[in-house]
Amino acid sequence: MLFSFFCRKVTSNHRSITLSDFSKTQLRTPPFNASIRYYSSLKTEIKQSFTISYLINSCGLSPDAAKSASRNVLFDNPTNPDSVLSLFRDLGLTQNTHVSKVIRNQPQLLLLNVNKTILPKLQFLRSVGFSSKDLQILMSSNPYLLTRSLDQYLIPCCNVLKSLLLSEENVVRILKRLTLRDGYNVNNLNLNISVLRGLGMPQSIISSFITRCPNAVWRDVDKFNKGVKEVVEMGFDPLKYTFVKALIAKVQLSPRTWKCKIDAFRRWDLSEDEILSAFRKYPHCMSFSEESITNKMDFLVNRMGWQPAVILKNPAYFTYSLEKRIAPRCSVVRVLLLKGLIKPKMCLVPILAPTDDSFLEKYVFKYQEQVPELLDVFHGKVDLKELGFAFDEKSAASPV
Questions:
Q1: Residue 248's CB: how many other CB atoms inside 10 A?
Q2: Rounded to an integer, what distance in angstroms lies between the CA atom of residue 131 and that of residue 127?
Q3: How many angstroms separate the CA atoms of 227 and 221, rounded?
Q4: Cβ partners under 8 Å of residue 37, min gap 6
Q5: Nearest Cα to Cα of residue 11 among 54, 72, 66
Q6: What is the torsional sign of CA 153, 154, 156, 158?
């Protein structure tokens, strides 16, 4: 039986493997157990060769990606994979833009039976409000969802979400945004929601929480409870939406990452009370990387001469891009300060918070006669040194 298998020709798009590919020495009769292991290994190699070739030529994967994917999925004929790819094309997915991404992320889909497994799930998703475009997005962003059981996961999950959100549109939005590869446990969802209800959190806030950050609610129950406890101890009110923002930050950050971000602020002689006060005011400030926090503090403190404690009183500043918003505007303000055109005592809010149009009107166009280069400074076309200024000079700015 084993010998007859190797006498068959295994065809791929690039090569054919036959008995002649193997030397007579390789086919000498070894001990029985060794023979089984040898022929089993050889059969796996042949399957892997076929699979890699198929992934490259039919799915658009690179050789390295195909080799990596073949560790998770093997097949020796194109029948089932071809039917899956045909379904993808019917859904409007193209090889160059979608198929390769889907298969790279979830190659196991090629092994699923189209009629018995995939189509029933797609039909169910359409019944809960997924459009053709939504299904394309889902396949690209979260193909793992289609490997989950229809009866044991998809239907119960959608039922729970609909009971909470009362909107098919929100259910679709959430399922498209889920990114976790594990932890899709409907029981976790129910238990974590029960914890929030136990705090007296209104249904409207719970629904907003799930819509805003669905992955957070699917977290391990113990980790979720720990995050809730920490947020309560920080003084957040579960009746307000800031509680949700703080909880999202806590459950998504590991203790080590949280400590690293606290330390990033403490390097600027800020106390833990000052840092936690900023977090209570604007929890999103802890969602930025340690590098981002450090770079923004370095610019505002060392280049603009502003006090760390004053900066942290308005933690929303950390949401702004250093390159696109903070640096261009501060460069303009720097020139105006050193030319004595604006007062040293000023608030950071009117500098960083307004729209570009408002900022340009107030700080650039208003002073263009005195400083014609201001617009070029704002767009980064003129360096301050070219105007005779430098950021290492002592700033007269003293924001309040």
A1: 22
A2: 9
A3: 10
A4: none
A5: 54
A6: positive
- Dihedral angle of Cα 320, 324, 327, 333, to the nearest 10 degrees: -90
Integer Cα distance of 214 and 175 in angstroms: 8
C-beta of residue 61 within 8 angstroms of C-beta of residue 103: yes
Separation of alpha carbons 263 and 259, rounded Å: 6
User: Across-strand partners of 360?
Assistant: none
Q: How far apart are CA 105 and CA 140, in angstroms?
A: 9
On the CB side of 152, CA atoms within 13 Å amount to 5
In this structure, the number of other CB atoms found within 10 A of the CB of residue 5 comes to 12
Integer Rg of the chain from CA: 30
Amino acid at the residue 283: P
List Cα–Cα distances, 316 to 39, 114, 211, 355, in angstroms.
64, 49, 22, 15
Q: Is 178:184 a contact under the CB 8 Å cutoff?
A: yes
Q: In this structure, are residues 335 and 378 in contact, taking their beta carbons and an 8 Å threshold?
A: no
Confidence (pLDDT) at 386: 64
pLDDT of 221-273, one tens digit each? 898 999 999 999 999 999 999 999 999 999 888 889 999 999 999 999 999 89
Q: Are 356 and 334 in contact (CB under 8 A)?
A: no
Return all residues near 341 (Cβ < 8 A) that are at least 6 apart: 367, 370, 371
To 10 degrees, what angle do helices 155-165 and 203-212 make?
130
Mean pLDDT value across the chain = 82
Residue 2 near residue 39 (C-beta atoms within 8 A): yes
Sign of CA dihedral 268, 271, 274, 279: positive
Name the DSSP letter for residue 26.
Answer: T
Q: CA-CA distances (angstroms) from residue 252 to 176, 209, 227?
A: 19, 13, 9
Closest of 290, 195, 269, 302 to residue 238, by C-alpha = 195
* Nearest alpha carbon to residue 89 among 71, 112, 70, 114: 114
The per-residue pLDDT for range 299-341, each reduced to its tens digit, is: 989 888 888 998 998 898 888 999 999 999 998 998 898 888 8
